Amino acid sequence: MIKVRFAPSPTGYIHIGNTRIALFNWLFAKAEQGKYVLRFDDTDIERSKQEYIDGIGIDLDWLGIKPDEIYYQSKRFDRYNDVVEKLKQQGLLYPCYETQEELERRRKIRLSRKLPPIYGRESLKLEPEEIKAFEAEGRKPHWRFKLPNFDTDPFKTRRTDVHWNDVVRGPQTIDLASMSDPILIREDGSYLYTLPSVVDDIDMGITHIIRGDDHVTNTGVQIAIFEALGAHAPTFGHINLLTTISGEGLSKRKGDLSIRSLREEGFEPMAVESLAVLIGTSENVTACRTQEELLEHFDLASASKSSAKFDPADLLTLNKHIVHLLEFDEVKARLEKLGIAGKDASPFWYAVRGNIDKVNEAKFWWERLEKDGSFNAVSEEDRDYVHQSVSYLPEGEFNETSWKSWTEALKKATGRKGRALFMPLRQALTGLDHGPEMAALLPLLGKTKTLKRLKA
Predict the structure, then answer these.
(1) Quick check: 354 and 324 in contact, CB under 8 A?
(2) Domain of 217, in residue numbers
(3) Distance of alpha carbon 282 from alpha carbon 301, whole angstroms
(4) What is the DSSP string of 277-327?
(5) Any idea where the Aminoacyl-tRNA synthetase class I anticodon-binding domain is (predicted)?
(6) Looking at residue 427, what DSSP letter applies?
(7) 271 and 177 in a common domain
(8) Does the structure show a pLDDT above 80 at 256?
(9) Are 28 and 34 in contact (CB under 8 A)?
(10) What CATH code is carried by the domain that includes residue 221?
(11) Reduced to 3 states, what is the DSSP secondary structure of residue 51?
């Protein structure tokens, strides 16, 4: 069975870029009748917060993503520690005592000699006395994984190609001899992303890893670790990243386009999902109303190899298309929270939905219709005409034909037509020169409010 995972770090709220990864995994799992794992990469104890864990859960639920399994890496340290001991015993994990300044100096020296700026495994040459001296200084080692890019002498590397068939990017090759041995454990004993991720993917039976293409190089390293632990690597797929319209990467720390903020601003989840999934692919970006519809347009291999620029203006356009098709029953509960309720709520919704971009904007028109008073929006030259219009109002309660009957009578009596006929009446009744069809608004206003506004 296909099994995928979304592994966010709960150090901030997820943004539209994180959501793209989450949705690609979710839709792939749905398409293959597979399972979806939510795994919190919370090994950074200081920066990981419960509020972000809760927030990510709320955001995913709002998007309609329902994990089959949930894990927390912070609860699996014993397992990682066991693996570390195994790698140490195999001679695949070794301590390094260089400071950042020393490493940077060596890097510059290698560059000046036109050599690749990779780590030279100098710590493997340390004598016991040297290690004791470093420890006496108070130095704590970081730990590197020894890449299998040599025959017998780790100081004589050879080209070692790691191949995989990426389900998005096609055949990929990484030469392990072109890379530094990766640091798996920091000086303070905390884990970097790499090792816990591999261990979890093995233990949880992950079959496909779908993630951003900024991890392509990491994949060569991780495949080597999978094999060192006696496991077969999952299938990989690397999709293009989203950037801001100016081409900058998105950041959780900056709060760039967080799902939380988009939700609070009133965007529809399917507008967010449609843009997050379809932008930067060969598919047309369309407003899908359901995940089932979005799934029909979803194809892992359709992702471009270049980054995709996310424009909030595009999101608003998609949102508008979705809102204009929402039925009253779909928005009733949300309208009630906005104070829009009663027998007029349904006809009101159908009257205004074509003139709003977000559901919460309906409140503006509800309050405008409910206002117990007039608007000072009619010009002096049209005021007499508006007062005169009272005499031509249809008898009885207003209905969907009242506006047409009223304006036709006024046209015959005054000779006005077009904008000169309609606009002063709209301005008097709504205070604006634009908005929903007046034929639908007039019955909602009712005769009492209509008279009061016309006579002002």
Answers:
(1) yes
(2) 3-78+164-242
(3) 9
(4) HHTTBSS-----SSHHHHHHH--GGGB-SS-EEE-HHHHHHHHHHHHTT--
(5) 380-455
(6) H
(7) no
(8) no
(9) yes
(10) 3.40.50.620
(11) helix
Residue 387 φ then ψ, to 5°: -65, -40
Domain count, the chain: 5
C-beta separation of 41 from 193 below 8 A: yes
Q: What is the pLDDT of residues 222-239, one digit of tens each?
A: 999 999 999 999 999 999
List, as residue ranges, the binding site for ATP.
252
In this prediction, residue 255 carries a pLDDT of 56
Q: Binding site: residue ranges? A: 252
Evaluate if pTM is beyond 0.85: yes
Q: How far apart are CA 454 and CA 427, in angstroms?
A: 10
Q: Is residue 287 part of a domain?
A: yes
> Do 170 and 54 reside in the same domain of the chain?
yes
Where among 286, 306, 323 does a domain terminate? 323
User: Residue 286: which CATH number?
Assistant: 1.10.1160.10
For 349-366, write each residue's pLDDT tens digit.
999 999 999 999 999 999
Kindly state whether residues 54 and 172 are assigned to the same domain: yes
Q: Are residues 445 and 311 in the same domain?
A: no
Question: How do residues 389-421 score in pLDDT, each as one tens digit?
Answer: 999 999 999 999 999 999 999 999 999 999 999
